[in-house]
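[agent] plan:
  1. take the single chain provided in the ticket
  2. run structure prediction with default settings
  3. attach structure tokens to the ticket
  4. add a short note for the reviewer (M.T.)
[agent] executing step 1
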Amino acid sequence: MSEETGIDIYRRRFLGSTAAAVAGMAVVPGVFLHEIGHARPADEGVTSAVRWGMLIDSNKCGDGCDDCVTACNRENGLTGFGRPQTDAQWIRKVRLKDKQTGYTQTLPMLCQHCEHPPCVDVCPTGASFKRADGIVLVDKHICIGCRYCMMACPYKARSFIHEDLHDQMPYAPRGKGTVESCTFCVQRVDSNRTPACVEACSAENHNAMMFGDLNDPDSDISRELEKQSSRQVRADLQLNTGVRYRGI
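[agent] step 2 finished; step 3 output follows
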């Protein structure tokens, strides 16, 4: 048996003392938290045989187009409060500029669903976790809002909920005082559907985003990655991100 670290002991004690107390807690009146991944049938467990990933082609990502952002907000019930600095953003458009040539391009930035996620490493309660299939999530039942994960994420992909929330989606529970980020629309993935951002991009015939199983050599995304080179953002961190980019 491996030796427990101080943080492991803290997590175990915290979970043991609070899990029962928060299991039935309401996020807002009438809206209760649901276990993430509930859409998957009980007899079909998540396994590491699959690793979900996304390929984004910045050459096809139109400047000024935010269909992916709009689709994400609609699917997951993200409401803006007119405060861009604090409003939740599970996916956002960022602009890159080559300082030497002046060439600019835009691309979507979201949780990179790392194989070795820093957010999981620093979480003191185990609220930030990675599923066996590579999707990184936050368990709102045990998130204490410390925001260590936000500081640890090199992609600024996580948001803190400052406001009271209403009219939530039952499959995408949220809660004031907790941290959240892109889930790859896990409720869709678990019912064999495509994330909302990818679906919206394809519907407009931009086809800048592709989603699939990185472990399956015959999947469309694996074939596309084999065809042409792609890059990880901050590959130097050796996080082995589940989101890859082309054209940057």
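[agent] step 4 note for reviewer: The chain has one domain: 6-38+50-79+87-246.
[agent] ticket updated
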